[in-house]
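Deliverable D5.2: sample structural annotation.
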Amino acid sequence: MNVLKTIQDLIPDLNNEQLDAITSTEGPVLIIAGPGTGKTLVLVLRTLYLLLSKKASPSEIVLTTFTEKAAFELRDRISQIAKKLRFKGQLHELKIGTIHSICDSFISKFIHYAPLKHNYVILNELTQYFFIFEHFEEIVAEPKNGKYLKRWTGKWNAIKGLVPYLNKITEELIEPKKLLNSKNLFLREVADAYLRYEKVMFDSNKVDFSHLQKIFFDLLKNPELYQKIKGKIKYIMVDEYQDTNYIQEQIILTLGSPDFNICVVGDEDQSLYRFRGATVRNILEFPKHFNKCKIIKLLTNYRSHRDIISAYNKFIESVDWSNPSGRSVFRFPDKKVIPPVDRHFPEYPAIFCIWGKDGKDEAERFANMVSFLKKHRVIQDYSDVALLLNSVRLERSGHYINALKKYNIPYFCPRAKAYFENEEVKLMLACFALIFGFYGDILRKYQKRSYIEESFMLLKNYIGTSLSYYIQRKVEQINALKEGESLDLTVADYFYQLLAYKPFSDFLKDENRARNLALFSQLLNTFQLYYHITVVTFRNREFIKFYLFGSFFRFLLEGGIDEYEDPDNPTPKGYVQIMTIHQSKGLEFPVVVVGSLDKQFRTQKQVDRDLSGFYRRGVYEPEHKITEFDRTRHFYVAFSRAQKLLVLTTSSRPKDCFSPIWDGLCQWPYVKRETLKAQRFVSKPQFIPKKAFSLTSHINLYETCPRQYLFYQEYKFQPSRAGQVLFGTLVHQTIEDIHRMVLDGKIGEINDEKIEELFEENYKAQLATGMRPLALTPKEAALKQVINYSRQNRDIMERVIETEVDVSVEKEDYIILGKIDLLLGKDGRLGILDFKTQPKPKTNDPILDRYIKQLSLYAYILKERYGKQPEQLFLYWTSEEKREDAIMEFTYDQELVEEAGRHFDEVVKKILAQKFDVKNPPDKNRVCKDCDFRFYCTMEGVIKFKGAVI
């Protein structure tokens, strides 16, 4: 089979450079891919070339991307083209994801070699702040002369200032001990804080993104583990390499050795993420790590009109990229993006400007232009237009939004940090302020007083309604508490009770408002977790009042948070897109409008100034050039998103650096007539990845209650008492630990004492992440189940092939996900075993039928993966004392498998069709009694639940 010819027959328009990139598979390869040059297609075809030419199987390829969405796109596009090329391999075994997600998957597999335990929590940008606040006294020394760490006043300022140092120390692999020996007192205190932060974080079974990478890097440096991790990995491909940091470079080089079949793809001109620790140095110096490295340049742009290409070429080339010796070391030489030589480009003003006499006038002209383009069908949809700004906070984007509203043009701007401006959020905050008594004298001293007062004004419209009477009752309950008394109510419980009353019950019927309220539930969960609030008591009611508003919401209100955006579809149809330049990375639009040309551009330099002396490879770009370099790369990305029209907009003279692209441009509205000569633009549909559905988290939940599925799974409402179920998790995790020891050849070390040690480690780790403690009796029962299983099943353990096996299969419209607790094998026979911690049900119990179908479906997926069907299917009920009572065996039944598959399909179709009405109310005592929405459903008449009287 001539693989290359097969690919060319399917996609005949590939140019020579693209073909070279696809087929150059051995050794280190650097692909410099300019904007619009088809790098995603190249990565897809390069992966399939490796597979079709049998150079690698799917499990032997690692493909990393910058975002999860990009990873899903690669996954689905590989699958789509693989079908056309008739590739039959197991594509689910491809290791595709962000570097963080790949680190996470390996750490989970080798958890006993890491300073973490099962179910560790990954801190995101927001929760990292709250984690440090939670442990502030343990991490940060007492202030001296009113300043923390000699630099910052106030806790929150100290936290925001400290976090970049903590992340940078980790990402640059700086040894804290060296900082401790610094002559700089500030750095010595930062090093102390770093060591304390690290200890508290691991003790709490939490990890930030930087440490996630460092832990994986440490695993790679363990010679024994390196061979297990490296395993069969033969080829590594890294997308967006210009935005990697030092530790990511080291991970890639270490994982790729000794054969170094590493292909990195990127463009130094599109390096944007210095503020997150990324360095353009990685891509510019990649060839220097090897004796020989092939460099391929993809420079033919298939995206943009030739005049746009010419304009942004002129802009990027106007900067001096050389070092003091005159060598162009900060940009690859001989690099010029070109349009396809055989393409005809219509004559029209593909690049022009808007220059208003003030902000309002500029925004009016912008909205007028959008209206004109839509009216004359130059664009087909409002989403064909993207307005790119350096920041989309309301102070920067508000005048554009107001102008679009005036023209009745819908817009989408979820990152304007305007979440708290939504009516439903203001009303909810007002309710909480009244319930917990945050008004009167305490409010007069509050920095965000005007915001709360505005919220109270909105709430005045509901005086005399059932909502106001509910609030009054709750206030009286809290005020009536006496010493030692408590209410069986969490802070989040009040939220779910409020949802039962108008206007909140009406808001839940509007998707956007419902998603905003779901985010509110997530915020309350964060508050409860990091401020250690369980239920409302006499002792903590004042604490809740002061810290919920004076600390938690004040911090969020000052910084602002983003509204919901669908990660799978960040640019929805029907709306003008208003986004940051960072947000636009990897996207393209028929019409791109770029603003912020007159605004000051700032680059964070202080952290590098302080720490660069401790970096393992010193300073790279001259500090005095960093702002110029970053601004140029930033706007080069913005300009190159445009396909047909590039519009520069401002209300005052742009900065001089934009002269090469700005000078001489025609202005709107004076180019209206000429613009109509343009071809009608047809935008590419945005890629939306296939959704994945699991039996447990999706199918079973939907069948239990479609409304629960809508609120918890689709909208992501956070349960008010998340973390109550610890028993089953403990049993499962400790049994998994036993199986991991078996796989590591340590079966002889397994005894009751070792099991109790593993059990206690898991228990402590789960408590550290917010789980509620078990009472002594159920805790002892959980341990007994594990010990019982271990004593009675040595023969099963000798047959263990794999534990916690991820299984997936791709369907036409979605992906099935699943996880098998245990995979067994002996004498060519394959078996699967699933653990259940509840007592064995009676033979006529419907739940048993569900479990059997689940096992059958997993067996089918395994048959697809291993090429042979499992002959033995087991359910093991760990609460049964005797093995003969605990284990149930079933035979593989093809008819049952097909029935389970059909049923799965039917349920998924209902979910995709958004059929979330409750036609048959679920069991009130089994399902509704613990559901947060029982109040709402009772008020709506869906169920009649006595316990929902509030």
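Annotation notes: The radius of gyration is 30 Å. Residues 846-866 form the longest helix (21 residues).
The annotation will be released with the project's public dataset once the embargo ends.
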